[in-house]
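Email to the structure team, subject: Insulin-like growth factor-binding protein complex acid labile subunit-like 2 model.

Hi all, the expression group asked for a predicted structure before they design truncation constructs. Nothing fancy, just the tokens so they can compare against earlier work. One-line instruction: predict Insulin-like growth factor-binding protein complex acid labile subunit-like 2, return tokens.
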Amino acid sequence: MQVCGMMRTVVVMAAVTVLLGEAKTAAGVSCLPPNKIFPCTCKEKSRGPSIACETSDESQIMHSLSVLKENSFVIYRLMFRNLNFPRVHDYTFLGLDVQHLTMSRTNITVVEESSLRTLAQTLETLDLSYNNLHTVPTAALEHLQNLSFLNLNYNMIKILGQAAFSGLRALERLSLYDNQMQHIEENAFSGTGDKLFRLNLGKNHLENVPNLQALTKLQVLTLSDNRLSVIKIGSFKGLNMLDMLMLENNQIQTLEANVFSELSNLNSLNIKHNDIANISQQAFAGLEDNLEWLELGHNRLDHIPSHVLRPLNNLRQLDLDSNRIVDLPEDAFEGYGDSIKFLMLNRNNIKFILPMTFFELHSLEWLKLSHNDLQHLTEDTVQPVLDTLTMIDVSNNPLKCTCEIMWLRSWLKEFAWTETYKSFAQHTCITENSRTEDILELKPDVLGCPEYSADPKAVAISTPVVPGVTVFLTIVSLML
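Reply from the structure team: attached below.
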């Protein structure tokens, strides 16, 4: 009896070993020999084979697919690129299990209704970019119940009809960048479930913000590079989960009151490269507590819109580069500047900065003032922020070579070794005889600045403190 029991144990252990061996073989599937799937190629990845079929004709590709169908294993990634594959026929992928499918630059004009049906259980991402699709292949897509990402960039889609993505209940990311869309039906996104959190509608021909009320979980929305000229009240109704909104490169001229009031959770707003000259005092109503990143660069603002910005309690980055700002009044950042860490004022027409202008910027780390018309920038002006600054850029200004910028020379010497500084243009100033000098090479004694001269008997050196940089000041006494 004992011997029989031992034999049964051995048999069971052997069976388990065989099963584990089979499971391991299935998990670690190897690529087929190259000559069998030519012109396709295969690379072994940790999650399964990755197969690429490029620069070939349709008959050769279909032959490769037939070989793959004879071998039962899950293909992690299957890619078709740079082919002439105008029609994806019904049941093209019958017999294949594919997780990620790319059919890019293949001249696709038609995706037949049942072409993707057999991938319904396994397909997670689908890339149909750079093709000739004029409409969304709704009937072919609706079976893909596990699809989380759909890329339709660079096609010729002009209209999104009703329920264009119906059935895609697991869809999380959808990109339609650079099509020719002029109109989106009100119910275009119905039937997509409640998981879609990222939508890219950039570089199309949209003149109005489409109705996106059905997308209640949307967090990132891109509407850049369209033809939007007006943002109407209610345009973002239902999008109270939105975290990031990109509206750059449109034709917006004015921001009216309450246009973003539904976006109470918005953290980042990009409205660069528009024609904005006027902003209503209540334009950012509703964004007071959560907005941290605001980009208003490349517009037509001739002043800092302080009256609009004061309610923003947690603003961290304010980008106003490439506007028409001429001066910075002393109250420019009053009431909201305490939280700002990154301030971009480069490429404006700023001629002077008053001594108390930066007084409220207690958290400032980056200050960009390059490409302006500054002739003077005294230490008293920047003193309120010197203790927190880790970067300052005042290159490409007509600064005068006088003792009042020697503080900048000292600061730049401490900062010049960093990678950030190396990417900047040279900081220069103009001498009395109209010569351009590198500020780092200025000689204090030549300019007549004794307080900045290298004096071995000095007991104090006026040096700005740069956070993250330990400055060792060694005072050497010549007294023996």
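Residues 27-156 form a domain with the Leucine-rich repeat, LRR (right-handed beta-alpha superhelix) fold (CATH 3.80.10.10). Confidence is low (pLDDT under 50) at residues 1-27, 455-480. Ping us if the truncation boundaries need rechecking.
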